[in-house]
Amino acid sequence: MNTHSPLPAPGAPLQHYVSTAPFDLQSVEAMTPEQSKVFQASQLRLMWWKFRKHRLAVVSGIFLAALYFGIVICEFLAPYNLHTRNMDYIYSPPQRVHLFHNGQFVGPFVYGRKMTLDMDTLKRNYIEQQDDVQRIRFFCKGDSYQFWGLIEGDRHFVCPAENGQLFLAGTDRLGRDVLSRIIYGARISLTIGLVGISFSFLLGIVIGGLAGYHGGIFDLIVQRIIEVLQSIPSIPLWLALAAIMPITWSPILIYFGITVILGLLDWTGLARAVRSKLLALREEDYVLAAQLMGARSSRIIGRHLIPGFMSHLIATATISIPGMILGETALSFLGLGLRAPITSWGILLTEARSVSVIAFYPWLLLPMLPVILVIMAFNFLGDGLRDAADPYK
């Protein structure tokens, strides 16, 4: 018995059965809601999911975001004005914050102090007066300031008590609050890393990209220049370039000069990394297809080659930024970087260059703490971003 369908008559049209319904991928292979969520997620969403699994990187990102937001409103956050001097409290050690006085809850407060002078060592000694309770005020009026040098204001997040003192990180040789100066110094130390890395990335990607994509005599010259720059010790080169800047320059010009110096010395490593990557990627078929379609070299490098190793660039950026912060700190500490009235963490550390000062007033080393925390946070953030940049691994 023949079970096959009869053949159509000669000349008769063939019958086709085509569904006009839209194609549904889930009808081919049934997926659970969890599988569908991952399958239909965008690249950015996949990167975010992988990044937030790196808890240390997330915490570091929040910490850095809070710091960079703080430099915008540092005048409001600082208890004192940057230049306020408390001449009766020179080299005053940090004060402890208390909540209870004689067994009763008072709220955050500090005890007043009385200064005595040790005639043998000429060291100032500050004794807490247990009967002088000075409650800390919040969202209060204090020292006047100019917000970003433009708007007059006197509101602070935290202030000392009326006719009281609040030195949570101690004072320096001029009686200036160290905590307030650390908050103000963050504006310079943190932004110099971002501006410097922007300049460094521009040079590294452009020069390294052209050298790796075109090769030839340009690549040869670039490699010799990089080898010469990398063979010179960093600190003497920093000192030589910093010494070139005239002492008559304004603080703003010195700031941009230090930024350019840090950028000029940091682009070589990135340029060599970009060159090595492009030497391998330029042989891919999609690069040849872009060339045959008439794409310019700048478009091929920027749209097709650079995104291929974006994770490496992200890791390089997060490592280079703390390196530039350290570079500015080192130059300022040696007296060849930024100069007063600009305030940075490096300038604050110049107060602690003497061994005797460190022995008697160790709190002057506190500006070193935010430098360490920022560098660690950038490194942890870089680890998380580098892993998240390739979510399919």
TrEMBL record:
Keyword list, A-Z: Membrane, Transmembrane, Transmembrane helix, Transport
InterPro entries documented for this protein: MetI-like, MetI-like_sf, OppC_N
SUPFAM superfamilies: MetI-like
Topology of this chain in the membrane: Multi-pass membrane protein
Subcellular location field: Cell membrane
Superkingdom per UniProt: Bacteria
Any one Gene Ontology cellular component term annotated for this protein: plasma membrane
Residues covered by the ABC transmembrane type-1 domain: 186-382
Coiled coil: none
GO biological process: transmembrane transport
UniProt family annotation: Belongs to the binding-protein-dependent transport system permease family.
Name of this protein: Peptide ABC transporter permease
Organism: Mesorhizobium helmanticense
Phylogenetic placement of the source organism: Bacteria, Pseudomonadati, Pseudomonadota, Alphaproteobacteria, Hyphomicrobiales
